[in-house]
Design brief:
It holds the Pfam family PilZ. This is PilZ domain-containing protein. InterPro entries: PilZ_domain. The chain starts with a helix and ends with a helix. It has two domains: 57 residues, no CATH class; 85 residues, Thrombin, subunit H, CATH 2.40.10.220. By secondary structure, it is of the alpha+beta class. It contains four helices and seven strands; from the N terminus they run H-H-H-E-E-E-E-E-E-E-H. It has a six-stranded antiparallel β-barrel.
């Protein structure tokens, strides 16, 4: 199937999912297509997926959103650099310890619904500047299925907005 036809079909499925108009068969087809698109975009970005891992949980899109991160030492406010349904990264003034747990509140843009709230674990950090700023990556530890689905819908909205076909 031609890529532009596949994308047109996916966009239609995605819009039906957004409106909750799927039959159970369409929902299964949509989730399979969403995974396929995420795998393709991960490969295009040069990322390799671990065997058995969900591409949808690992596929990140660049998006700046307010996030409040609460460590034992102090709460911090930042903006995300990128986001997936499995985690996010942001800039922080210092590097928390790898593996450290924190609470977070993620404010989704343009949504009047409650923010995504949960716990996350620090999985990586890297210096960004000489002033001590760090790019810190988090994986979600405790996020409801409903919030994860809200994140995935937003992530695929953003991804589809970047794709011209």
């Amino acid at each position: 199937m031609d890529l532009s036809v596949w994308l047109t079909n996916f966009r239609e499925l995605h819009e039906r999912a957004r409106r909750r108009l799927h039959t159970s068969d369409e929902r299964a087809l949509y989730l399979e297509a969403r995974e396929q698109l995420a795998r393709s975009l991960l490969a295009a970005q040069g990322h390799k997926l671990q065997p058995g891992a969900s591409a949808r949980r690992n596929f990140r899109v660049p998006k700046g959103m307010h996030v409040d991160v609460s460590f034992r030492a102090a709460p911090l406010r930042s903006r995300t650099l990128d986001i997936s349904s499995g985690g996010f990264s942001c800039m922080l003034g210092g590097a928390p310890a790898g593996g450290e747990l924190c609470g977070f509140v993620l404010w989704l843009p343009g949504q009047e619904e409650a923010p995504v709230v949960g716990r996350a674990r620090v999985v990586a950090s890297a210096p960004i500047s000489q002033q001590g700023s760090q790019r810190v990556s988090f994986t979600f530890v405790d996020v409801s299925d409903e919030d994860r689905e809200r994140l995935e819908m937003m992530i695929f909205d953003l991804a589809l907005g970047y794709i011209v076909a």
